[in-house]
Design brief:
This protein is α/β, with parallel strands linked by helices. The chain is built from 19 helices and 20 strands. Helix 9 runs antiparallel to helix 15, helix 9 packs antiparallel against helix 18 and helix 15 crosses helix 17. The site of adenosine-5'-diphosphate has 12 residues, from strand 1, strand 2 and helix 1.
Length: 649
């Protein structure tokens, strides 16, 4: 029958500086299933090194190790982890319990990596602790337990996945005599139940409990004595059973364990976690605010443009804005407006005559801008009537004397909430009846001049006294017609009529596009600065995660000893990095909303509109930053050597 454990001429040497220490010097040993073996020797004789090799935590430099007849040489880190998980239970001199976890959580941990469901884990951990006399200490943390109790917790942990072979390295070394006796008693009971128990000790009295005592000195076995009849061979190796769970549910299970663990690790260092997040918080808040500002100003511009009227072209005399001769150009006339109105691509035309005049009511006298407009003017320019009606379309002979006031002029002329409708005012020397009040569109320049709208025929005839030339024409383009094409058609028509191009066209659509382009460029520019701050934040996360891995090296070693795969460790730290970044991004988003609430009034100077895309986008970005910058630390953790990690202070 194949022995449970068989090592043959095993060597293990360590390179320390320029000397090589040979800790094991050709050890050969066979242990049958069900034996209770003590390995004794002075300090430094190689006991722990042997134990680590037996427990598949370490591999021999030379020689063969067969477990259940199968060689372990050449197995990958994860295959060794599987062997440890399925067959071994470790008991360490200094317990190696995880401080932040309760007794139950410590005991249940190995089953996580064996793929046991959460409630089944807890139940088994509770019953093991109960059995070891710790039923009343289930939710205590290691710090709240005595040494003997902690060692019993670690025995329960060793039994969690079965613990067929129990490896105890100086299990009583840190305990008082009574607790030590108690631990040995438990180990003897486990042996009686069929567990193979291997105890490493320098204490001959402890060794006296065993059926077989192997003495090791300077890496060599010097004696191997059977003190009692062995029950060897009673138990054979349990076959390795990898739980047949799908990849997806395995991943889900790992996440559901690792995520709360990560949250706990974050909660354990609240201030540090917060400071780590700060870079992400500031970066995300900046990105979201800037995007909000960009969107806000874009929409503001769009709103202004649509108040200006969708798809309108304005024609003014002169070569371009601010042409000084414009005032002397009188070729733009009503006949032009009429000709344009007949074009198929034109929906409506409003002639504009501007003048400035004194306006008097019974209560006040003031100077206002007089706008001579056509019936379409308010619609085209998106001016809203508050009360009353528009000036009516006058025929050339029928000179209706009607006026519409803007809200400011109305209050100036008729103070004290009187309705101006139906009242007579004097515009220059022309009496006119007020027929409506309009709300003037908010203008970006904050223009506060008073505006009065009268029919353009009235202005040209009665107010300015000038001839019938116009201050401008506003053409609204028919639906579905490209404003560019309409503009070209108008230019050629008007040039033909005037014989030369003594006018210029202002295209609101092109203006809108230009404004949108500018605001997009600005957003892109500021966003790229914010992205740099996010990268800096990510580097901060990476830095702290590297520190965290160093601090938790022993925890990592322990998790590996009880059978965590590399990917388990990798995921644990990756999830922590991602959670830090996600939490940071949520705080950053909240901050951005706060900024929006304080300075980003949608009606104000700096409107801020935070879109759902911006919020979702920042979460995705934070997730990716966590993955990217968490990967290096997590990989460092996953690549640790279990023995090395366990012995780290
Ligand atoms: P024991 O457990 O019997 O006290 P160990 O097996 O821990 O002894 O160590 C045996 C020898 O190997 C000692 O001389 C120790 O210094 C050396 N040794 C153990 N581990 C390492 C290591 N990782 N690097 C260098 N030397 C080591
Ligand atoms: Mg030792």
């Amino acid at each position: 029958m194949t022995p449970l454990i068989q090592i043959d001429k095993v060597y293990r040497s360590f390179v320390a500086g320029d000397e090589t220490i040979t800790a094991l010097n050709g050890v050969s040993l066979t242990i049958e299933a069900g034996e209770l073996v003590a390995i004794v020797g002075a300090s430094g004789s190689g006991k722990s090194t042997l134990m680590n090799i037996l427990g598949c935590l370490d591999q021999p430099s030379d020689g063969e190790y067969r477990i259940g007849g199968k060689s372990v040489s050449g197995l990958s880190a994860d295959e060794l982890a599987a062997l440890r998980r399925e067959h071994f239970g470790f008991i360490f001199q200094r317990y190696h319990l995880l401080g932040p976890l309760t007794a139950v959580e410590n005991v249940a941990m190995p089953a996580v990596y064996a793929g046991v469901a959460s409630d089944a884990r807890t139940r088994r951990a509770q019953s093991l602790l109960d059995r070891l006399g710790l039923g009343s200490r289930l939710d205590h943390r290691p710090g709240q337990l005595s040494g003997g109790q902690q060692q019993r917790v670690s025995i329960a942990r060793a039994l969690m996945n079965g613990g067929e072979i129990i490896l105890a390295d100086e299990p009583t070394g840190a305990l008082d005599t009574a607790s030590g006796e108690n631990v040995l008693q438990i180990l003897k009971e486990l042996h009686a139940e069929g567990h193979t128990v291997i105890i490493v000790t320098h204490d001959m009295q402890v060794a006296a409990n065993a059926d077989r005592v192997i003495e090791i000195r300077d890496g060599r076995i010097v004696s191997d004595e059977r003190t009692r009849g062995s029950q060897g061979g009673a138990v054979s190796l349990r076959p390795l059973d990898e739980k047949a769970v799908g990849r997806f549910s395995a991943l889900r299970q790992r996440l559901s364990y690792a995520a709360p663990m990560a949250l706990r690790a974050m909660a354990a260092h609240r201030v540090r976690t917060f400071l780590t997040m700060l870079g992400i918080i500031i970066g995300i808040a900046a990105v979201v605010s800037v995007m909000g500002l960009g969107e806000g100003s874009r929409q503001k511009v769009l709103a202004q443009m649509s108040e200006l009227g969708a798809s309108t072209l304005s024609i003014f005399p002169g070569r371009d804005w601010g042409d000084e001769r414009a005032a002397n150009i009188t070729s733009l006339v009503i006949a032009d407006a009429e000709a344009l109105a007949r074009q198929p691509y034109v929906r409506g035309v409003t002639p504009l005559i501007f003048a400035s005049a004194r306006v008097r009511s019974d209560h006040a006298s003031l100077t206002a801008n007089i706008n001579g407009v056509g019936p379409d003017y308010f619609t085209i320019n998106g001016i809203k009537l508050i009360s009353g009606r528009n000036v009516t379309a006058p025929g050339p002979e029928k000179r209706e004397q009607e006026a519409v006031l803007d809200d400011r002029t109305a209050t100036a002329l008729f103070p004290g909430h009187q309705s101006p409708l139906g009242r007579i005012i004097l515009v220059d020397r022309m009496p006119a009846t007020v027929v409506g009040v309009v709300q003037r569109p908010r203008s970006a320049s904050g223009d506060r001049t008073l505006q009065i709208y009268v029919s353009h025929t009235n202005v040209s005839g009665r107010v300015s006294g000038t001839a019938s030339s116009l201050g401008g024409l506003t053409v609204s383009v028919a639906d579905g017609i490209d404003t560019g094409a309409a503009e070209r058609a108008i230019v050629s028509l008007m040039t033909r009529r005037h014989g030369l191009k003594d006018f210029y066209v202002f295209n609101s659509d092109q203006m809108r596009k230009a404004l949108e382009r500018t605001s997009r460029t600005m957003t892109l520019l500021i966003s790229s600065v914010a992205v740099i701050s996010l990268i800096v934040g990510g580097i901060g996360v990476m830095n702290i995660m590297l520190v965290s891995v160093t601090e938790r090296t022993r925890e990592i070693g322990l998790r590996m000893a009880v059978g965590a795969r590399r990917v388990d460790i990798l995921l644990q730290f990756l999830i922590e990095a991602v959670l830090i970044c996600l939490a940071g991004s949520l705080v950053g988003i909240a901050l951005a909303f706060g900024i929006a609430a304080v300075i980003g009034d949608p009606e104000g100077e700096m409107p801020m509109i935070i879109s759902l895309q911006a919020v979702a986008g920042s979460c995705v970005v934070a997730f990716l930053i966590g993955l990217t910058f968490g990967f290096l630390p997590a990989r460092n953790a996953a690549q640790l050597d279990p023995v090395d990690a366990l012995s780290r202070e």
